[in-house]
Amino acid sequence: MENRFINNHRNGAYLPGLIWTLIRTDFKTRYHGTLGGYLWALVKPLFMFAVLYTVFSVIFSMDPNYNLNLLIGLFLWDFFSEATKTGFLSLQAKTFLLTKTNFPAWIVVLTSASNALITMSILGLAVCAYISIFRRSLSLLEISCFGLYIFIFLIIIIGISLAGSVLFLRYRDINQIWELLMQAGFFFTPIVYPLDIVPHKFHFYLYAWLPTAVIQFSRSVLVKGEIPTITAHLMLLGSASVVLFAGVALYCRLALRSLERL
Amino acid sequence: MVALNIQEIHKSFSIPTVKLDTVREHILNSFKMGKYLRNRRELRVLSGVSFSVKAGETIGIMGRNGSGKSTLLKIISGIYQPDRGAVQCALPITPILGLGVGWNPELDAIDNIYLLGTVMGLTLRELKTAKDEILEFAGLQEFSRLELKHYSSGMAMRLAYSVAFRAVRGLLILDEVFAVGDREFQERCYKRYEEIRQAGHTVLMVSHGPAEVERFCDRAILLEGGKVVQEGSGQEIVRAYVQLLTSEKAS
Questions:
Q1: Do B81 and A3 touch (CB under 8 A)?
Q2: I need a labelling partner for A180 at 20 to 30 A (CA). Which of A60, B6, B78, B227 fits?
Q3: Which residue of chain A is at minimal alpha-carbon distance from B105?
Q4: Average per-residue pLDDT in chain B?
Q5: Domain count, chain B
Q6: Is it the case that residue A78 has pLDDT exceeding 80?
């Protein structure tokens, strides 16, 4: 007999409340008991910016936009790194709920990115405000494009997190491997150095690593006011969709049995 | 109307005799594949369990430790997947499983009520109106802003069951619920449970307590070695269960 579970009678009215509660409790517990509270989330990328700017602004002093490019690169990278690392551990972190009640576990993975998203949104708004006040006024189209890149980044993060969260339940050191990749990825992505110093023939490989594309596109619209081509947008969106699809497929394939390992 | 139909449920767990949790351990073991394959054994927990529950009925499940009761409840609740067989449920399920219902110890009682309540299917609006009633039922109004890590285990469980009893939808699944709290809280649970029954909810209850099964259950089943060995009235199953325990002691 085919194995199946049929119970479609629980309506979804509770889901918005559940998502809100998971985001709220994650936010509350993350900085619970710390002296600086949520400020720590903002201090980390800003402190990194201060250190890297002090060191590298001497080397790249010929670039007048170096500080702004560095700041945009850093907070977007921090968003990607923090959100995926939390995503990998998200199911494990909610063992106390997932082993006692039945609700869609993917919601836990989705909401795990919320803390990083909040921090990134605050820093993104601050950078947009700084550019508008001290550099040049940003058009609605440029701001919308930046919003689109954040959305695409979130799609990529969710895809990676869905896959990573179920893989972690089987291979407990996969998050360590991901952290190593993140360390290498930080230097592979043109964050502290401008993309132009890399020979043009290698740009394809850098862009194949999707954080590079998101960061470069964001810099392009916010700093230079140049909107990438439609083809470039479609390629980025297509690549992000592939990551999401792969993550969803792996999650659907492994989740049911992997959750029994909690 | 049949509320729950369990057909030929089979469940086993593949237990590694060698611990393989990390990528390193998997890679190292892949070099000795034969040994790797031999180093797993199958633990059969349920073997063809079938029964059905009518709407409004209360069914008790008895059985010794390791007989498969908790696994069966987790499969019915949708937390585990059966290897074979089918679970058909015509009602939304509210599971209250085990003694650690699921708390975040860093949060206070009210935040935890929202967390557990929404997970159990209550909306924020329902929780807003019910939270005082939940705290009152648990007798914990004065500790509402105390973090759960400072609660005693009894206090935490009282709160957990208060939320769960508020979240009851169609089919209530109880795992050893009445073993919690002091006599006064147990009496409050019994009273609330009677209200739930009178409201027409269907209940599936695992218990080791003969008095509870005899008092509350319309029917009961006895699980042994992952199989239903007897089905009958509460009194019949309690007698069979006690006999099983005494024969085990004698042998």
A1: yes
A2: A60
A3: A29
A4: 85
A5: 1
A6: yes
pLDDT the model gives residue B36: 53
Cα–chain center distance at A50: 22
The pair of structure tokens assigned to B187 is 């009496």
Closest approach of A188 to chain B, Cα-based (Å):
25
CA B86, CA B52: separation in Å to the nearest integer?
12
What is the residue range of B68's domain?
A: 2-7+54-250
Domain count, chain A: 1
B13 assigned to some structural domain: no
Q: Name the A residues in 3-32 with CB < 8 Å from any B CB.
A: 3-7, 9-11, 13-14, 16-18, 20-22, 24-25, 28-29, 32
Query: Domain with B122 in it: what CATH number?
Result: 3.40.50.300
**B88 vs A: CB within 8 A:** yes
Q: Which residues of A touch B50 (CB under 8 A)?
A: none
The tens digit of pLDDT for each residue in A86-115 reads 999 999 998 888 888 888 899 999 999 998
Put simply, whether B154 touches A (Cβ < 8 Å) is: no
Q: Which residues contact B194 (CB under 8 A, 6 or more apart)?
A: none
Query: Is B47 within a domain?
Result: no
Check CB contact of A253 with chain B, cutoff 8 Å: no
Neighbours of B125 (CB within 10 A): 10
- Alpha-carbon B91 to chain mean position: 17
B30 lies in a domain?
no
Query: What is the value of pTM for the model shown?
Result: 0.84
Question: Residue B140 falls within a domain, yes or no?
Answer: yes
Q: pLDDT digits over A171-201, tens only?
A: 888 999 999 999 999 999 999 898 989 999 9
Confidence of residue A1 (pLDDT cuts 50, 70, 90): very low
Residue B41's DSSP bridge partners are: B15
For A100, which of B13, B97, B170 is closest by C-beta distance? Answer: B97
* Model-level ipTM above the cut of 0.90: no
